[in-house]
Amino acid sequence: MTRSLPILLGLFVAVAACAQDTPMSHDDMDMEMSNDMETADDRAMDMPPMRAHDEARVSPNAGVMTTVGTTNVMVHYGRPSLKGRAYFGEGAELAPAGTVWRTGANEAPTVTFSGDVMVGGEMVPAGTYALLTIPGDEWTVILNDTAQQWGAFRYDASQDRVRVMATPMTDAPMQEQFEIRFVDVTEDSATMLLHWGTVGVPVPITEARM
After folding, report:
1. What is the mean pLDDT of each successive set of 10 residues along the chain, which is 210 residues long?
2. Cα gap 157→145, rounded to integer Å
3. Counting Cβ atoms within 10 Å, is residue 89 exposed (0-12), middle (13-18) or buried (19+)?
4. I want to staple 78 with a disulfide (CB 3.0 to 4.6 A). Which of 59, 130, 143, 182 is the partner?
């Protein structure tokens, strides 16, 4: 027993030394993870709820969300169907070229950013905006400060936050029902794609550059 005492003391000293070298305790790690979760929850609280209505709609509501860096990006919009109608051209029945389009159905879509971002290279502060477009050979993509508006009937250009240009793809896979989705998502960027028929309009979103 006497001979084993120095060995036990040596083990105790080694364990104590290892404990002192530990960079972060379990409690500290739990606290850091909790703080990160609270920050994410706070950003989520800034996002509006999905649109809801008492009756079903022919053009149903939809929503899509992604993160760009540490910023949440959420889009709410209506999904009209083509039903054989002409679109995105001169004299088109649905969204004529050169005319401000609600970019969907019913209310104009809303885009919410929980933090500052760059949209098409232009700085956009955190907030909620109406998303409107002008179809053409080159599309004009508009973020308007009047977030809640029905269609584009009372659209006021003086309330535009930014206007950016986008080059459409005209050979996209056929899409009967209008869709907005995020593609080419990385840790600090994403492309918001507006897709209807065989036309896709990419809108790049990146972290804000200070």
Report:
1. 46 43 49 48 57 72 95 96 91 91 94 97 97 97 95 94 97 96 97 98 92
2. 10
3. middle
4. 59
